């Protein structure tokens, strides 16, 4: 599973830093923290086991517990991992969350193109600004005329 989740080879240098992330109290704090970790390499799990919540250690799978991703969900359910009780997990595996039906509000109307030409000075021509399908929020726009440098006498 390391190849499936880690994108290939594991890098020992980053692994040391990742241990510090895992044991940090701020680890994924806005996403549920350590309670959302469902799989770890056995060596990493052994290294951080004493710093994890005691009731969670045996609920995190390793390569010895789960050999591929298709076996992970049943293993988590069997071991009563806390993530199994979340609405997101239930929805992801086709659980209880019902899908709402949406009504079409009308046909999509393509946005037009707004062209704006600013005249140049002294017949030098201008430039064109073309805005396509965009929204611009700005406090101000400053357009300055660039004065040619004067030759020293």
From TrEMBL:
Residues annotated as domain CO dehydrogenase/acetyl-CoA synthase complex beta subunit C-terminal: 1-87
Protein name listed in UniProt: CO dehydrogenase/acetyl-CoA synthase complex beta subunit C-terminal domain-containing protein
Lineage, opening ranks: unclassified sequences, metagenomes, ecological metagenomes
GO BP annotations listed: acetyl-CoA metabolic process
GO MF, one example: anaerobic carbon-monoxide dehydrogenase activity
InterPro entries per record: ACS_CODH_B_C, CO_DH/Ac-CoA_synth_bsu, Prismane-like_sf
Gene3D superfamilies the record matches: Bifunctional carbon monoxide dehydrogenase/acetyl-coa synthase(codh/acs), Chain M, domain 5
Pfam families reported in the protein's UniProt record: ACS_CODH_B_C (PF19436)
